[in-house]
Design goal:
The protein has 350 residues and is of the alpha/beta class. 43% of the residues lie in helices and 15% in strands. The protein has 13 helices and 9 strands. Strands 1, 2, 3, 4, 5, 6, 7, 8 and 9 form a 9-stranded mixed β-sheet that branches.
Length: 350
């Protein structure tokens, strides 16, 4: 059962970053930096946090690292110490085959997470029916936040029929649409609009290449001869884990005009600037190979991480990615929050 304050805020539309993983040069958990990151996001004004997700590195679950439970607990501890509002949305990433996913859901629920962001990644051998059955089992444990993960980073293409059945599952409360594909994104919107539960499900963008446009678009879907309107009300994004303070400010502006008939053209310009920045952070030119290292590089430049290291040594910046990050840093000074970070860094690390 999702508590009312969280449910209301989820449907109003929240700003939710995907929480990165802080490591030392020896690829051990850097607990001090991990805590500092959580403090940074809370002070930046986010509406929730997603921990144990793709940006946190799926490998935290591997027996070689065994960090899943510790990382989730650190974030909860910081949220409690910060006395975040009752409506603050606490999301735990949930992965793996059904038994693993249920165990992760049980742990997340036990320590205080509100929802489980259920990834379909790494389950290429599962049929869509098996994925739906897995969702039902997880939903019996914790409220579910669906996740359409883009194929380039381990997701798969899922049919309209899959999302239509997914939307009908009780205790599914939201879907993160992140295939980085307009056609596939529209499948999810149509599927939810055609479900009798359409008013129970909040849509969130995870399309880091199309953040602003997703948030500004009203969808009007024909359902049995009647128009059903649906908006993507908020975002759950890896991109929002960097330059977060400024991104929150842009999001707050968008929320004010989201329901207007006329949208100021400046938001179309901002949309392309953000997409350009994201292309560098996520290493779009190299099929997103350096996406996590790119995020970590930006945070390291600001002093929030010791370095851009990932659990797997092969996870590194792509060719020319460093130069691209340099370029967007210089091109969009109005989008970064270096001044805010510098002002608060010592306090977050204390």
């Amino acid at each position: 059962m999702l508590k009312k304050s969280v449910k209301n805020f989820l449907h109003e539309g929240a700003f939710i970053p995907a929480h990165p993983l802080a490591l030392t040069e020896d690829r051990e958990l850097d607990e001090q930096s991990q805590r500092a990151l959580t403090r940074y996001y809370i002070d930046a004004g986010v509406g929730g946090l997603a921990v144990g997700v793709h940006t946190t590195q799926f490998e935290i679950r591997d027996s070689a690292f065994n960090l899943f439970e510790k990382v989730l607990k650190l974030a909860i501890d910081e949220m409690e110490m910060a006395e975040v509002p009752d409506s603050f949305i606490k999301i735990a990433g949930i992965c793996g085959p059904q038994d693993q996913a249920v165990k992760e859901a049980e742990f997340a629920k036990e320590i205080g997470y509100d929802l489980g962001l259920l990834s379909m990644g790494g389950l290429q051998s599962h049929t869509e029916e098996q994925l739906l059955e897995r969702t039902k089992k997880v939903a019996e444990v914790i409220p579910v936040f669906g996740f359409y993960l883009q194929p380039a980073v381990g997701g798969r293409v899922l049919s309209y029929g899959f999302w239509r059945k997914f939307a009908d599952i009780p205790n599914v409360h939201a879907i993160k649409i992140a295939p980085f594909n307009r056609y596939l994104s529209l499948d999810v919107v149509r599927a939810v609009c055609n479900s009798q539960r359409n008013e129970d499900i909040a849509l969130y963008t995870g399309n880091d290449d199309n953040i602003v446009n997703d948030l500004l678009t009203a969808y009007s879907i024909n359902v049995n001869g009647k128009k059903v309107e649906k908006k993507i009300v908020g975002g759950l994004l890896g991109h929002w884990s960097v330059w977060t303070k400024k991104a929150v400010e842009v999001f707050d502006e968008i929320k004010k005009v989201q329901h207007n008939d006329h949208i100021p053209s400046k938001y179309l310009t901002i949309a392309q600037e953000i997409t350009d920045a994201n292309a560098s952070f996520f290493d779009a030119k190299n099929h997103f190979k350096g996406s996590i290292a790119g995020i970590n590089e930006v945070l390291a430049r600001q002093g929030l991480l010791q370095g851009r290291w990932c659990l797997l040594e092969k996870e590194e910046l792509g060719p020319s990615q460093m130069e691209e990050i340099d370029r967007v840093y210089a091109a969009y000074p109005h989008l970064h929050d270096d001044e805010f970070v510098e002002k608060n860094l010592s306090r977050w690390f204390s």
